[in-house]
Amino acid sequence: MLALTNQNYLRIMRISKFFILLPVVALFAIMPACTNLEDIVEDGRGEDVVDNVLPLPPDAAAALRGVYDQVTGLASQDNTFALLEHSSDEMMGPTRGTDWSDFGVWRQLHTHDWDASHSFVLSGWNQLNSGVFQATRALAAAGSNARVAAEARFMRAYFMYLVTDLYGSVPFREATEGILTIPKVFTRSEATDFIIADLTAAMPNLPNYQDVNPGVANKDAANALLAKVYLNKAVFTAANPAGPYTFAAPDMQKVIEHADAVINSGRFQLTPYWDNFTADNSTKSREMIFAIVNSPGNSRGNLQSRHRMTTHYNQNPSGWNGFTTIADFYNKWSASGSGDVRKSAAIPGVTDVSGLRAGFLEGQQKDQNGNNLTDRGGNPLAFTVDVDLLYSNERQGVRCIKYPPDFTNVDNPGNDYILLRYADVLLMKAEALFRTGNAGGARDIINQIRTHRGATAITATLTADNILDERGYELYWEGWRRNDQVRFGQFLKAWYAKPQSNERAVLFPIPQIALDNNPNLKQNPGY
User: What is the pTM of this model?
Assistant: First the structure.
């Protein structure tokens, strides 16, 4: 047996990387049918363990950095992000000839025809459960280091929230359990309680927001995430995942309490909208509560995908000519008022450099000098609202730029990628007020946001549809639309190229490999 020095630990983790990166529920299955795991070292497929237990990281702070690294995967256009957005009514990946066919993975997300073998269902599961497991190990290694333990708890809660939201069941393995031990499985309700307990325990020892950068777990981020959990608790604890949902007044009061903790801190304020997303958002935004912090030339995560996944080949920067929004969502903007800057805006340092605007791109596209762009066939590059899921040409579909490119380093942009934002906290409080009968107070908050964005104030009685629409206007392409549509009972309804969905679609299936390897897991209803 090797002594557990830092050098040997790094060797262990290199050899056994698959223990963490594969689904934690499947760890035991990838091992040979022997119990003497030292034998695995002999052929290079494993490493040294004691009683089938992976050794704890010798450096808890380094282990925590690995957990933060895991969250950067959320900035890519596929995996978890694809599940969150392509299943909603605000993003679509049309097939253009042979481009973007990809064996139907994008179409299946749009039409809710996925199954347990869908590649993003598996990769998202791996991505998130790996984050839970790595955070659990960092927590176990923290010992008496209260701050590392608190940050690890927050990160575990963040990843577990996403597993709970997307899949319902949550496998869980303690850091001290043997790798041949079959992990326990939390029900959706049990996972919700676990997340709340983790965040509550972490809160006293998390750093204050003003003492760290937004890329570090902090008290305000914990309050924002707790508000998010309580807002969705009715969904997560419902007898039928598809509803109906009962939003208990005590839960809504908790949303208000945690939102107020952020609002009353005085550390955040509504920022001019596009200052939240441009390359210099780290200095301009006062809304970032928790983010993936980047600098030009050092992007953590595939942030360039945020413009390349949608722009045409002949735009600057050149893109992959992929994702669009759909008419059902785009046409909602007619009710928001022509002055709403969230829909479209010229961005200094972007539009004057390339002609590219932020927000939604419809109609004739131009370069920085106002000249009309063309597609590869010489046709006017005019993006149309009409788009065909199966047979689109290069020009069809309204595009979207949420994170304008950083022309100081296009491939590795410096935009910080936002995970929790102040405007969302305000909208969560508004929704909680509405669900407890205070529609007037909710409308005041929403109008505060709308006025700041240049939109027309709402004067009529506020409705649930108003709140869902406002969350769409404010948070589009930020990863919350599916979650919002489920909570408001709109996710199963028909929209372009998607008929009314089966109730099963409110949860993704448990990947087949996870079911095969963990008898404690049960497939979600309808799969």
Answer: 0.92
* Packing angle, helices 119-142 and 60-71, rounded to 10: 160
Alpha carbon distance 288, 260 (integer Å): 16
pLDDT tens per residue across all 527 residues of the chain:
334 444 444 444 433 333 333 444 334 322 323 233 333 333 333 444 556 778 899 999 999 999 999 999 999 999 999 999 999 999 999 999 989 999 999 999 999 999 999 999 999 999 999 999 999 999 999 999 999 999 999 999 999 999 999 999 999 999 999 888 899 999 999 999 999 999 999 999 999 999 999 999 999 999 999 999 999 999 999 999 999 999 999 999 999 999 999 999 999 999 999 999 999 999 999 999 999 999 998 888 899 999 999 999 999 999 999 999 999 999 999 888 889 999 999 999 999 999 999 999 999 999 999 999 999 999 999 999 999 999 999 999 999 999 999 999 999 999 999 999 999 999 999 999 999 999 999 999 999 999 999 999 999 999 999 999 999 999 999 999 999 999 999 999 999 999 999 999 999 999 999 999 999 999 999 99
Distances (CA, A) of 441 to 454, 485, 499, 501, 525: 20, 22, 36, 34, 38
Contact status, residue 63 vs residue 137, Cβ threshold 8 Å: yes
- In the numeric block, the tokens 């010798």 are attached to 58
Closest C-alpha to 306, from 65, 70, 71, 91: 91
Q: What are phi and psi of 177, to 5 degrees?
A: -80, 145
Cβ-based neighbours of 423, under 8 Å, separated by 6 or more:
270, 287, 449, 474, 475
368-376 — which CB contacts under 8 Å span 24+ positions? 368/316, 373/312, 373/314, 373/315, 374/314, 375/312, 375/313, 375/314, 376/313, 376/314
User: If you search the block for the tokens 């730029």, which residue do you land on?
Assistant: 401
Whole-angstrom distance, CA of residue 59 vs CA of residue 13: 13
Beta bridge partners of 495: 498
Dihedral sign (CA 517, 522, 524, 527): positive
Q: From residue 43, give the alpha-carbon distance in Å to each of 32, 38, 51, 253.
A: 12, 10, 19, 57
CA distance 211 to 176: 33
The encoded tokens of residue 218 equal 């902090």
Q: What angle do CA 27, 150, 479 make, to 5 degrees?
A: 70
Name the one residue in this structure whose structure tokens are 């927000």: 359
Separation of alpha carbons 169 and 116, rounded Å: 14
Indicate the DSSP class of residue 417: E
